[in-house]
Amino acid sequence: MSSTREKRHKPRLIVHTGDGKGKSTAAFGMGLRSWAQGWNVGVYQFVKSGKWKVGEKLAYETLAKAHEDNGVGGSIFWYTLGEGFTWLRSNDHTDQQSLAQEGWDLVKKHLAEEKNRLYILDEFNHVLSRGWLDIDEVIDTLGRRTGNQNVVITGRKAPKKLIDVADLVTSMDKIKHPFDKGERGQAGIEW
Amino acid sequence: MSSTREKRHKPRLIVHTGDGKGKSTAAFGMGLRSWAQGWNVGVYQFVKSGKWKVGEKLAYETLAKAHEDNGVGGSIFWYTLGEGFTWLRSNDHTDQQSLAQEGWDLVKKHLAEEKNRLYILDEFNHVLSRGWLDIDEVIDTLGRRTGNQNVVITGRKAPKKLIDVADLVTSMDKIKHPFDKGERGQAGIEW
Q1: Which of A129, B93, B104, B158 holds its CA 20 to 30 A away from the CA of B120?
Q2: Chain A residues with CB inside 8 Å of B37's CB?
Q3: Transmembrane segments in this chain: where (chains A, B) (predicted)?
């Protein structure tokens, strides 16, 4: 029978999916809490998104600097996979697949080292749903992670196999969206 | 016919509702983008939640300090309504209603002054769904707000009247939650 302490510290596998807004945004919001606890937080961007999450990145860099300078909060490491490559311009799935594999190999290395206490695998569902990685190997690796390592995976179309093994799954569902009315995204809100 | 610039700058009324996680968390994630644009961000906590969002608050304080010290990002103002009062202990709805009114009066004052460019009205749906404020007056005030003021309202049970006038509505829906298995919340993840 596990103690209260053990229950409280059970590391989580969290999935944010659905066709609505807020999947990544809520993951980055969750990262604020992990940072505030003094945890190491790792962000792994698996898909080049519209504006590369410039706002979140500036905020996270600022929080990481506050940790370095004043010891407040924890460390933050931000990895943009395939940066410098022609990710979005390439229509060659082999390239995207090898970048995805490279990114996942980095995550696996860090999990083995117990580098972080929170991993944000941003848009990783996209990679999984495209079949660019072996889903069984991914789930096996996540399931065998040691220590106190929490993982949050975002993106549409989370595979059922992932949902089955996750601890917490939330679907962000679109009720109404201004783009439906032909409005455009704006700095400060969408990026 | 509005120009592209005008379209891009149309201020948004955003609602995060549903029974899942991530409603407030995504709002605080959105605040990172607004802060990064140099906007004034105002947080108005309408309901005393479990741990008072201590992690988000520390992160926001750190970002606000970075703005003051180094000019990066924007200002952040954080208002915890009813702080010092016995909000949760009180079962007297009149007290909660008067605190809600006090909080809303503060938001109205700031909207009239165009104090912020993003308003996070955290758990305001709770206040509205309880009927503690006049929903028609709230909607009228929000609809007549001037300038470039974006508002995001979080909480379960968003009233239909609010959804009808909102620009962007997302429902965070629970697919799976560890508390269902009897697990407890933990620092760094839930607060």
Answers
A1: B93
A2: 55, 187-188
A3: none
**Residues of chain A contacting B17 with CB distance shorter than 8 Å:** 175
Of A29, A59, A166, the CB nearest to B26: A29
pLDDT tens by residue, A164-189: 999 999 999 999 887 777 777 888 88
Q: How many angstroms separate the Cα of A59 from the Cα of each of A24, A107, B9, B87, B116?
A: 14, 22, 22, 32, 18
**Burial call B42-78: b when 16+ CB within 10 Å, e when fewer:** bbbbbbbeeeebebbbbbbebbbebbeeeebbbbbeb
Strand partners, B16: B154, B170
- Asked if B24 lies within 8 A of A20 by C-beta distance, the reply is no
Domains recognised in chain A with CATH numbers: 17-47+55-89+97-173 (3.40.50.300)
Q: Which residues of A touch B49 (CB under 8 A)?
A: none
Sheet holding B41-45, edge to edge: A76-80, A41-45, A118-122, A150-154, A13-17, A168-176, B168-176, B13-17, B150-154, B118-122, B41-45, B76-80
- Per-residue burial over A144-155, b = 16 or more CB atoms within 10 Å of its CB, e = otherwise: ebeeebbbbbbb
Q: What are phi and psi of A51, to 5 degrees?
A: -115, 20
pLDDT digits (tens, 9 = 90+) for B28-58: 999 999 999 999 999 999 986 556 788 999 9
CB contact residues (below 8 A), chain B span 49-78, against chain A: 54-56, 58-60, 62-63, 65-66, 72-73
The letter for the amino acid at B4 is T
Give which of A137, B22, B35 is closest to B43, Cα–Cα: B35
Helix B54-70, helix A23-36: angle, nearest 10: 90
Query: CA of A188: which chain B residue's CA is closest?
Result: B34
A188 vs B15, B117, B172: nearest CB: B117
- What is the ipTM metric for this complex? 0.88
Q: How far is the C-alpha of A56 from the C-alpha of A27, rounded, in Å?
A: 11
